[in-house]
Specification:
By secondary structure, the chain is mostly helical. The protein has one domain. Helix 5 crosses helix 17. It is globular, with a radius of gyration of 21 Å.
């Protein structure tokens, strides 16, 4: 049973976002994705179709959704802490510190593509804005998102970076072969060294600036939605959910197709990610809300809520399982599995995780990492057994 103080739609959306994130992240475990052109790396028709599906419907669509949910949850945490007259500033400092430390360990020992440290740091920047009225929060977040990312897109277009490919063509075969060898057969120390280098490539200063002006406004928008109790009052908005779903889905697909129509220019790729992905994130959220209003489909979506309640544990487990499957200290499948097979593997991994969550939550109130997180936040060991 879902506790009364939990919001079913929030847990379901978080669980679905975890599946979408894994579908995108699996490319990083299958290949040196930071250094290659995916369509040149995977050459079969099945892999190309799989990449097209991931690019159009998954990539840059679920991190925005997760960012909105993070802002939504942050506001809930603040309001509940203040209602109980708890020291919110002290609690949130511990909460974000734990998240940052967990992300640091994640990068150092498991996978370079961690997002937890980014969320923790940007979360601190969000705190002063949480006192704003909901409509002002939404307006400020939306305007900042549109203006900042439009500026970056125009800058990319005017800077002359209008050449083919989302990644540089695979010209440095020696570097790529070295990376493949390290992840396939390297020692844990060699893999760790390469993992840190990959993290520095992915989170270079330019990328951090772009990421900040993508994630930070979404935190604000999510917090504004939370103040309006959007997910707690889904019945009040009636058919508006359906209309928003249709229009954002159509707009998102149109934007996502731009690089396929006009060429894979960096400016268009950026627009595809930040605007097309965000529209799709909103459309997916609206679709889930619509389906949750129907009893038959609501029963099916309940399974995602169990993963959503253990989102931090599941996120880390996904990386841990994938690293064991693909890296040299595990089954050494790196660069040996097709993208199509990898996407099927995602279904298997996530399915097992859902079963695990369902079983775990029968006996515990929280996932193991969530329990540690909450205990660290309140500086006392909380009850975890039911």
């Amino acid at each position: 049973m879902i506790p009364q103080n939990r919001i079913l739609a929030l847990d379901v959306l978080r669980g679905i976002a975890l599946f979408g994130i894994l579908m995108v992240n699996i490319m990083s475990f299958l290949s040196p994705i930071l250094y290659i052109n995916p369509l040149q790396w995977w050459t079969s028709t099945g892999d190309h179709l799989t990449y097209l599906m991931i690019d159009l419907f998954f990539r840059s669509s679920f991190y925005p959704l997760f960012s909105l949910l993070f802002g939504y949850s942050l506001m809930i945490f603040r309001e509940r802490a203040l209602a109980k007259e708890l020291p919110f500033n002290r609690l949130i400092l511990r909460r974000f510190s734990f998240l940052f430390m967990t992300g640091f360990i994640h990068v150092l020992f498991i996978w370079h593509g961690d997002i937890l440290m980014v969320y923790a740091v940007i979360g601190f920047f969000t705190l002063p804005f949480l006192k704003m009225p909901p409509k002002l929060l939404l307006m400020f977040g939306c305007v900042l998102y549109l203006l900042a990312n439009s500026f970056f897109a125009i800058f990319l277009a005017l800077s002359g970076f209008l050449h083919l490919g989302t990644n540089e063509p695979a010209r440095n075969y020696k570097l790529i072969n070295t990376i493949v060898h390290i992840y396939q057969q390297g020692t844990y120390r060699e893999i760790t060294r390469q993992r840190v280098q990959d993290w520095m490539v992915e989170y270079n200063p330019q990328a951090i600036i772009l990421l900040f002006f993508t994630v930070f406004p979404l935190f604000l928008i999510g917090a504004g939605f939370s103040k309006l109790r959007l997910l707690e009052r889904i019945e009040e908005y009636g058919s508006k959910w359906k209309r928003v779903f249709v229009w954002t889905l159509l707009l998102g697909i149109m934007i996502k197709f731009l690089p396929y129509i006009f060429g894979e220019m960096k400016a268009l790729i950026y627009i595809q990610d930040v605007f097309g992905g965000c529209c799709q994130a909103i459309s997916y959220a609206c679709l889930v809300v619509v389906l949750l209003k129907k009893k038959r489909t609501a029963k099916f979506f309940m399974i995602f809520s169990f993963a959503g309640k253990m989102s931090l544990t599941i996120y880390l487990l996904q990386s841990g399982v994938a690293s064991i499957l693909f890296y040299g200290y595990g089954l050494q499948l790196f660069a040996r599995v097709s993208l199509l097979s990898g996407s099927i593997l995602v279904l298997a991994i996530y399915g097992v995780q859902v079963v695990f969550c369902t079983f775990w939550l029968k006996y515990s109130f929280n996932g193991p990492i969530e329990w540690l997180w909450r205990s660290f936040t309140y500086f006392r060991f909380l009850k975890w057994k039911r």
